[in-house]
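2.7 Reproducibility. Because tokenized structures are sensitive to small changes in the input, we list the exact sequence used for Protein broad-minded, including any N-terminal residues retained from the expression construct. No trimming or masking was applied before prediction.
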Amino acid sequence: MAQSSNEDERQLPAMLRQLFQSVKEKITAAPSLECAEEILLHLEKTDENFHNYEFVKYLRQHICNTLGSMIEEEMESCISDHNQGVESGYDTVVQYVTKRTQESKEYKEMMYSLKNIMMVVVESMINKFEEDEIRSQERQRKVQKEKNNSYCTDNCSDSDSSFNQSYKFCQGKLQLILDELDPGQPKEVRYEALQALCSAPPSDVLNCENWTTLCEKLTVSLSDPDPVFSDRILKFYAQTFTLSPFHMTKEIYISLAKYLELHFLSREHHVLILSAGLDITNPNVNRLLKKVRLLNEYQKEVPSFWIRHPDKYMEEIVESTLSLLSVKHDQSHLVSQKILDPIYFFALVDTKAVWFKKWMHAYYSRTTVLRLLEKKYKSLITTAVQQCVKYLELCDAMKTDVTVGHSKYCGNKQKTFYYSGQELQYIYFIHSLCLLGRLLIYTQGRKLFPIKLKNRKDSLSLTDLLVLFTQLIYYSPSCSKMTSAAHSERYSPASMVTEVLQILCDQKECAVECLYNTTVIDTLLQPIHNLMKGIEAAPNCSEAALIHIADILARVASAEEGLILLLYGENVHSSKEESSTGAHIIAQFSKKLLDEDISIFSGSEMLPVVKGAFISVCRQIYGTCEGLQVLLPYSLHESIAKAWKKTSLLSERIPTPVEGSDSICSVSQESQNIMAWEDNLLDDLLNFAATPKGLLLLQRTGAINECVTFMFNQYTKKLQINRQKKFGYGVLVSQVASTAAGAAALQNSGFINALIAELWSNLECGRDDVRVIHPRSIPVDPIDRSCQKSFLALVNLLSYPAVYELVGHQDLPNKAEYSLREVPTCIIDIIDRLIILNSEAKIRSLFNYEQSHIFGLRLLSVVCCDLDTLLLLEAQYQISQILLHAQEENLLETSESHREFIIDGLSVERNHVLVRINLIGGPQERILPPRMLVKGDDPYPWPMFSSYPLPSCYLSEVARNADIKKDSDLGKLLLCFKMSEKQTDWIENSQRQFCKMMKAKPDIISGSALAELLEKFVLHLSENPSVCCFPSMEYTATDANVKNESLSSVQQLGIKMTVRYGKFLNLLKDGAENDLALLLKHCERFLKQQQSPVKSSLLCLQGNYPGHDWFASSLFMIMLGDKEKTFQFLQQFSRLLTSAFLWLPRLHISRYLPVDTIESGIHPVYFCSTHSIEMLLKAELPLVFSAFHMSGFAPSQICLQWISQCFWNYLDWMEICHYIATCIFLGPDYQVYTCIAIFKHLQQDILQHTQTQDLQVFLKEEALPGFRVSDYFEYMEILEQNYRPVLWRDMRNIRVQNT
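Resulting structure tokens (single pass, no recycling of outputs):
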């Protein structure tokens, strides 16, 4: 054993060398000796080969031989005494044994022995190193003359010498190196001294007493004419920047910057004249560029670590840099020759001023840079601005040589080694442009303006600078078409300016201050003005320049402030002609491009790109409600649709390429271009669907099916709409699904099929790509998180127009057997498989029966909040009877005479749905049972039932007696509306008194008083032709004439529901059901006289109004069940404009609407009222509007549902009466104001549910507690003052062809 140990000790030097060789890179990269020691101490954690090193194996064997037996004895002792609590302070046996071992005598003896052995080994290695070093130096002297002048020659010693050198480098040797670096010493001596300095550890060099002297010597040596020696100095600088601590690199950086500053100020540099250009093969120029590049590389790296050091270090670096860049020669004695200043060289090595971008990124350094620029070095900004001004003047002058020079630089793919004066000027211009662009992003940077320039009387303001930048886009020369397009585009003036302006657009505060003003926008639009006038846009304005302009305009239009500026100018209420604002000019130009009414670019290959760029600007505008209103006169939807149809025909005519034909490539490229343009046009058309009125325009084009198919294709690729859209296609789908034609298009495109397939995969199948390591966890939530997205998508989809189109007149499959692999493909299948589980076959076909059925019941609960949908499903599938039967089967017999319901997730959910669909009422009129169990002996205190009627606990006693009032206030209320001789005076007086009563005593406006009030007011309005919107229709049918006519099953169920609600409120009596049925039959016959039937595949256009007449039912209850008074009122009311928006069946396929509006199947309430609601919502409640978009849900859909059913189930009866009375008395625009008031009331709830990602469910399921029309009356009056002219014009125009 002893012989083996001695043999190992003789091998220890070799073992250590192996170890150091393996960790050579880690040790040499360490900035100091302390870091190197830390690396070795933690080597086991960082080196996967640690236990394979021979030295580690030796240590392990030595420990085993010395301490092995003792460790085994301690282990046995610990285990035997464990139950007696030996050393109870230690958690494990290992910890206990380790402590005992380290405290033992054997361990201390082993450590002492190892230390002695290692000291001997290390001493021998150091001695051998010194011998090797002497021999190495001798060899270096022999080959010194053969060394090349490579800048990055690697002269580092091996790992052993590098590691041990730190022990032997001393202050005396450093002093010797300083003496040998003296310029008076022989060249060989100076070379050796510099070589030794480069090999010295940076930490030792830093800690020497002569560091300041060394810096001075190095600075002097930088001017050495010997290129080899100069490169050696730069190598030392580079090593210092890489390996040294920050305060050392700071001093080296400052010394290099000061050297360059003195160099540029010295007379010897005067030979570099701008007009002579710059030859970088010149040795002097080459060395100078290397020094500048080294400085610049450090500039770009230093921001990553200077925050860890005192401010003083950073300030010194910044100031030395700005001082160098601000160097200017006194050229008073020179007339036409300009000397190259340092900024030109920095522009050469860092054309896009990346160093300045990094310095301005962090607030820590940005404040220092801006403070120094403002106080001492503002000339740097002034010269940059001057350079941009000069370049624009050169472009404006259109000098041939300038143009050629700049084009040469743009397109010179293989750069020569010579830069002409023109190219240097251009490079400096690009550098200045990037520097100024970065400066303008920050508030303090913008405060440096205005700037006083030479040869200019007025100071140059911020707006002047932005105008200058904008003019550069279309005044600067284009690069040669023979050059690489990508390379030329990268540095072309227009591209560079566009890049700067894009960054400014993305910063809201900066964009508002810099870009969003009429002067800058007018400058952007100037070439468009000129083109429309038939003159050339600008001396060098090209298609590329127009594309850049369109890109900036699109970014401006995507921001709210920019959009307002384009739509209305700086003063919204200005008397300036509307057609002169930016939006009008852009729309006119885009229409001319689409109609090919501009000949200047005809035949150009870039013309489709120009068209697409400007249509994308329009898309940003007409994608908003207010923008669409402004652009309506231009009928852009027609022009885009026409261009799409033309392009679609072209794509069909492209011949199929034949293999081997020479035309394959050209045909293929042509077809790709045409298909790309076709997709672009479809995308433009699709974006009309972002607003309700835009969706009407889209359906008029006849391209909705193709657009929705395009949207589905993009959706499957997970692509966003465009770069300005942030929340995908959610809102678009929600808008499209609010119409029958849109729902049909979604079905035909495969969108619904894909949505249902994804739902089924998550609900029933689970993810295929998840490895089955453990069983799937039971979901805690009723709807699992994996299915939440699909659930919300279905909620968005299933508006009543969509449900009627997709489900109407269709039976359930109700198959005898369902395969486990059978996946639903449509909404009928979802109802059949998840909601109406009325057979064992359906239950057995589900892997997760309870979870899937709860999903279906939750979906049913949300969908049935739309009363028309509820009536349709009840009429077609009798859902309430099926749910009651399921509850019946959930009964458990506890004794012969007593049965109890089994309380589980399904029975609780069914109970909630049954109460919801059977009971009508506002927030204070009905009580819905919760879906959650409670702690205690009775987890579900709410009674369940399996047959009607409902238990009385769900009926609100307070609400039941709320409307039991005497008519004692009738006379008092009617006295407020004294008639005068003139009808118009009476109307205005009535409206004024009504407002007064709504604010002071709103509860008086109810009961029979309200009925009489409405009768008198509508009677006088209908007798005033100037107020009437529709002509009077003669109607002579009697009850006997209509008695035998049949009502739809939906209407029949709606009658029962209305009478049940009326009786609950004590408004209707027995027999009201027959009277209401007769009333609805009279209404249908009366309205049919004014209808114009159309041939359409849409179900909603085939026959009478597809839903229940909730307005007529509401009036029947207001009139206390008097059908004659109600029908007489409706006849008179049908002449008023308000009837078009309150009484939805009034304009169903009405001949008073344009034919294309009838064929679209879209009601004016949707394309007019809800469109206005979205427009006002964005202006008045921007947070709520953003919340809708973030949730992927359109406000128009929920508003359409509220309005269609007259707020039944959402407001108490008193508030419904006030809503109807307010709209009749004050105008249909109050329908819009009421919805805005509701959103204002719900603002906090909406924001909260946006965060919990269930906004759609909240708005559809929850009533509107606490909302009273009278509380928001003053707010609605303010809205009326601000918006009535726009809304009334829009509402009156529903009969006009150009909606």
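Residues 105-143 form the longest helix (39 residues).
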